[in-house]
Specification:
Blueprint: E1 23-32, E2 38-39, E3 43-44, E4 49-62, E5 66-74, E6 81-89, E7 98-105, E8 110-117, E9 122-134, E10 157-162, E11 165-169, E12 177-180, E13 188-191, E14 206-208, E15 214-216, E16 225-231, E17 234-237, E18 247-251, E19 254-262, E20 265-270, E21 283-286, E22 296-299, E23 303-306, E24 315-321, E25 324-327, E26 337-339, E27 347-351, E28 356-360, E29 366-372, E30 375-377, E31 381-384, E32 388-390, E33 398-402, E34 407-410, E35 413-419, E36 424-429, E37 435-436, E38 440-441, E39 451-456, E40 462-464, E41 476-480, E42 485-490, E43 500-504, E44 508-513, E45 518-522, E46 527-540, E47 546-548, E48 554-556, E49 561-572, E50 577-583, E51 586-601
Parallel strand pairs: 20-21, 31-39, 40-41
Antiparallel strand pairs: 1-9, 2-8, 3-8, 4-7, 4-9, 5-6, 5-8, 10-11, 12-13, 14-15, 15-16, 16-17, 18-19, 19-20, 21-22, 22-23, 23-24, 24-25, 26-27, 27-28, 28-29, 29-30, 32-33, 33-34, 34-35, 36-39, 37-38, 41-42, 42-43, 43-51, 44-51, 45-50, 46-49, 46-51, 47-48, 47-50
Length: 602
């Protein structure tokens, strides 16, 4: 009959070096600092082990506190049970570190270790080792193979465990394969292959999941990049792709995208592959199928270049300076061209269907356009603070100017003693402008009057914080109060209530961002002003954001954000506060502003 013998060997610590077959290291040479628990990769290979002697050797590096080490066991690597723990205290550590052993019974196939430091203590784990005990069962002489008691179930294998000695290896589970593991006494085990989701080793670098996904890790269980099927004909990489060579997307000789690195620059040809020839500069370019040259080329020196696909690139746009773009040729716009849109100093070039108009102001209330061949026209007043020429300056025309004595000169000669009363004289230009004896303007073709021209005396410009006393028509006053400089001309014939008409200067404004609730400007003098204001607000925590504009309108939405902007013309009195405000819940962001510019004052 068969004999059964049980050999249980539990090594002592001093035997480990000479009996490595019987010892499995779970953790070795690890620094532990106060933080989240350190979870070390699980160790497998304990199938068939009856018991294990766990030993732990640690050193205190610095600080005060405790180190807790826990050993858990699992039959499948997913459900865990704590089977042993040690607590090392800095007050009880002796020179040379701390050491302890614990015996556990019936370990499963997996053991894992966690470590947690407290206080400000720092520790060093030299090793956590499992010294295993083995139950060996062997057949005796005189029995037959098919009736030996070593067989317990279908699929069992008899595996040699030593000279003339065998041990039963129970059958594995569905999907497992027989594999070599030299850390085990029998050197063999049943294991799930990587193709169905198990990592290749206890400290894996690569695995294939049952879903077909490939995963990579830096030698631990934390998979940090993967490659998988995203959809029909699609792969998805959950990280960056670094290529030391070229990257082609497409097939054949015409690639839809062709990227490569050259002399420290990334060069891309998008839309086709240009074979042969040298690039004029490295950057990104597009080449249509059949073209020999790029159609669009973004160079690394910030030139955006264009061509017809056959000839060299001949048109470009580039940065000429801070906030300035330039082109080497003509710029055509099928729509309007607007500068300073929505502001008091707005300028717009627009085609009104009959002729091109250069308009000024947010409502294009001042215009300049071509009236006929060789003729420019404005529908308002043209203020000239210097000389005014009709015809050629060098001769063949009229030069209007004002001398220091206040007399209008035409071509350098006084005509009929027409005086410049204080600041200037208003002349009306018509199709035919003739001076008669005595300085009288002939009324030829009076029905076709075109433009009012103000000839101002350069010597008569007056400055100050209040208008000059006893002004006459055409008097020019420059209001300079140290905050802004506005220039006005005195025209009581145009408006007796507000006779000072604005002819130049910056807008007066205020703006803010962040938590500011409102911004405002104070109207410095009675008059008519162009007022602009608005902003954008977004909030968190629910509720509506809103903006109140200078016209008193409240703008809000139900999506925790609001944005509005308006420009209008208003008659305002001195001291009036023009305000833009915002409201809302917990502020996430806000930009608000208000500005004004006079049209006429008194």
């Amino acid at each position: 009959m068969a004999l059964t013998r049980e050999v249980v060997r539990v090594n002592q610590a001093q035997d480990l070096a000479s009996s490595s077959t019987w010892a499995i290291t779970l953790v070795v040479n690890q620094d532990i600092e106060p933080a989240a628990p350190y979870v070390f990769p699980a160790t497998t290979g304990f199938s068939g082990v009856n018991d294990a002697l766990l030993s732990c050797v640690v050193d205190l590096i610095s600080g005060t506190g405790q180190l807790t080490i826990t050993v858990n066991q699992s039959p499948d690597g997913s459900s865990w049970t704590a089977v042993a723990s040690w607590v090392f205290d800095n007050g009880r550590m002796v020179r040379g570190g701390g050491y302890d052993r614990k015996l556990i019974n019936g370990p499963n196939d997996y053991l894992s270790v966690t470590a947690q430091a407290t206080g400000n203590s720092k520790w060093f784990i030299r090793a956590v080792t499992a010294v295993v005990g083995i139950l060996e069962t062997g057949g005796g002489s005189g029995s037959t193979v098919n009736t030996d008691t070593i067989w317990d179930a279908a699929g069992d294998l008899a595996v040699g465990s030593g000279p003339d000695t065998a041990q039963r290896l129970p059958v594995g589970t569905l999907g497992q394969v027989l594999t070599v593991d030299t850390t085990l006494p029998l050197k063999l085990k049943w294991a799930t292959p990587p193709g169905v989701g198990t990592s290749i080793s206890t400290s894996p670098y690569w695995q294939i999941q049952s879903t077909g996904e490939y995963d990579w890790a830096p030698g631990n269980s934390q998979w940090d990049i993967g490659l998988k099927r995203y959809g029909p004909g699609q792969l998805q990489l959950t990280g960056d792709l670094l290529a030391n060579g070229r990257v082609f997307i497409g097939a054949g000789t015409d690639f839809s995208v062709y990227l490569y690195r050259y002399a420290g620059n990334i060069v891309g040809i998008i839309g086709g592959y240009m074979s042969g020839g040298a690039l004029s500069g490295w950057g990104y370019q597009t080449i249509a199928t059949g073209d020999s040259q790029p159609r669009v080329f973004l160079r690394n020196d910030a030139y955006l270049m264009f061509g017809d696909g056959t000839n060299s690139l001949d048109t470009w746009i580039t940065r000429l300076g801070p906030g300035v773009l330039g082109t080497n040729g003509q710029f055509n716009a099928n729509g309007n061209i607007v500068a300073n849109a929505g502001k008091a100093r707005q300028m717009m070039l627009v085609d009104n269907g009959n002729y091109a108009v250069l308009g000024f102001g947010p409502g294009n209330d001042t215009v300049l356009y071509r009236a006929a061949a060789g003729q420019l026209q404005t529908d308002g007043w043209l203020a000239v603070l210097g000389n005014f020429y009709a015809g050629s300056k060098s001769g063949g025309g009229w030069a209007f100017e004002a001398d220091s004595s206040g007399t209008v000169l035409v071509n350098g000669q006084p005509i009929g003693g027409i005086p410049v009363q204080d600041e200037g004289v208003a002349l009306t230009l018509r199709n035919k402008l003739n001076f008669t004896g005595g300085g009288v303007l002939a009324q030829d073709d009076a029905a076709n009057a075109r433009t009012n021209v103000l000839i101002a005396s350069p010597a008569g410009l007056q400055t100050g914080t209040t208008p000059p006393a006893n002004p006459t028509t055409g008097t020019v006053w420059q209001w300079d109060n140290g905050v802004f400089t506005w220039t006005f001309v005195y025209r009581p014939d145009m408006d007796a209530t507000y006779p000072w008409f604005f002819i130049g200067g910056p807008p007066l404004g205020s703006n803010a961002s962040g938590a500011t609730l409102s911004v405002s400007i104070t109207i410095p003098r009675d008059g008519t002003y162009v007022v602009s204001g608005g902003g954008a607000v977004s909030v968190t925590g629910g509720g509506d954001a809103s903006i109140t504009l200078p016209d008193g309108q409240l703008y809000q939405t139900g999506t925790n954000q609001a944005a509005a902007y308006s420009t209008g013309t208003y008659s305002l009195t001195s001291g009036t506060n023009v305000i833009v405000s915002r409201t809302g819940g917990a502020l996430l962001g806000a930009q608000i502003g208000v500005s004004c510019q006079p049209i006429k004052i008194r």
